[in-house]
Design brief:
389 residues; Rossmann fold; methyltransferase; globular; EC 2.1.1.320; alpha/beta; five-stranded antiparallel sheet; plastid; NDUFAF7_sf; 2 domains
Length: 389
């Protein structure tokens, strides 16, 4: 496979091979060449992959009900809704419009803060969000930690875009996987990338403890098995905690329990790539042009959150959460309104159903944490009211 010139020379400068973690960080977040850093990826029905907010406003409408409940648990002070990794800005604009219209008591004291480290994406967001009815600003978690705010941090499909370490199992030990550049003997300016076994993994690095990876023979593993570790999660959670003097953290992503994550079903890990709505499994293909994502071990996040000082409130599958917030009523409303534009009504209903499809977006999980709050029990953790799809 072809290696872009910038990556070819950069790997050569680092000795011809680099940790998989470094490779993912470069091809996703390099400010000039990364898929997110340079802003080459497009999110939405006509883009490279879809997210819940890109399917219409139903997701944001229901999520806003939960946001409003939490915002009402504060006093009369100024509040912030912080979205990390805002993508195209779909969700930020939808929430701004819905909260402005449906919760007028927050119009003069609620701001939206966007955490976007990739300049290519932030420029697109600024153009898209120009008509936000609520004040908004871009910042970093480090900047916020110097002047913490009160409010909510929303992390929707953020952690799955973190650079990860990839480990491979060999003769009763785990080894760090590396990406090696194999030059073409006939053309020194050409080459290909290959995954190789690197150094033995240091089990003292955070997130391995407690998952069984630091123990030998905890399940029948075979040489060649691979898995991922989200080694950036603890630092990210610590930064989120320092950014809030009081508030909530809602993480929405695709989680798997450790007992399944580190099993034969995922013996080659959970890495997936996306481009033009097509899913693939080769992370070395078209570097800088594809989204690279992987699932998250649930116990890894919960352990890191506890170490970071977050109080875990609870979790629910996205399908369950949206039903508890009234998705069935949304579907009923779309089905029974004026039928002047039957095609748009059919598309809207299909998109609503995609939000709860257990084989797709409905299998995402909502995890909520709080910091220094006497929290109200989240609406999305209640039982659905009995309405049926």
């Amino acid at each position: 496979m072809s290696v872009p010139s910038w990556l070819y020379h950069r790997i050569l400068q680092h000795g011809g091979n680099i940790p998989f973690h470094q490779y993912v960080d470069w091809v996703l977040h390099d400010q000039d060449y990364g898929a997110y850093g340079a802003g080459s990826l497009q999110i939405g029905l006509k883009g490279d992959f879809v997210t819940s907010p890109s399917l219409g406003s139903s997701f944001a409408y229901l999520l806003a009900l939960q946001m409003e409940q939490w915002l009402n648990s504060f006093g009369e002070e100024p509040l912030s809704l912080i979205e990390t990794g805002p993508g195209e800005g779909h969700l930020a604009l939808q929430l701004a419009q819905i909260l402005y219209n449906n919760a007028p008591n927050f119009r003069n004291r609620l701001e939206i803060i966007l955490i976007e480290p990739n300049k290519g994406m932030s420029q697109r967001q600024k153009n898209y969000l120009a008509k936000s009815p609520l004040p908004l600003r871009w910042s970093s978690l480090e900047q916020l930690s110097r002047n913490p705010v009160k409010g909510i941090i929303l992390a929707h499909e953020v952690i799955d875009a973190f650079a990860v370490e990839r480990l491979t199992y060999y003769k009763n030990d785990w080894y760090r996987q590396r990406v090696a550049l194999i030059p073409d003997r006939m053309n020194k300016k050409e080459g290909k990338l290959m995954l190789i076994r690197g150094e033995r993994w240091d089990y003292c690095i955070p997130n391995a403890e407690g998952l069984g990876l630091h123990k030998k023979n905890t399940f029948p593993m075979k040489s060649g098995w691979c898995t991922e570790l989200h080694t950036e999660t603890l630092q990210w959670l610590n930064s989120c905690k320092k950014s809030l003097s009081q508030g909530y953290l809602l993480v929405i992503d695709y989680f798997i329990e450790a007992s399944h994550y580190y099993s034969a079903r995922y013996s080659q890990g959970t890495i997936m790539t996306y481009k033009d709505q097509i899913a693939r499994i080769d992370p070395l293909q078209d570097p800088g042009k594809l989204d690279i994502t992987c699932h998250i071990c649930l116990e890894t996040l919960l352990s890191a959150a506890a170490k970071g000082g977050w109080s875990f409130i609870g979790q629910a599958l996205q399908g369950e959460a949206l039903l508890a917030l009234g998705l069935a009523e949304q579907l009923y409303w779309s089905k029974n309104r004026d039928k002047k534009n039957i095609n748009s009504i059919i598309n809207e209903r299909e998109n609503i159903l995609r939000l709860v499809n257990p084989l797709g977006l409905g299998n995402f999980r909502w995890l909520v944490f709080n910091s220094n709050m006497k929290h109200s029990y989240p609406l999305f953790l209640n039982e659905p009211n009995g309405s049926s799809l």
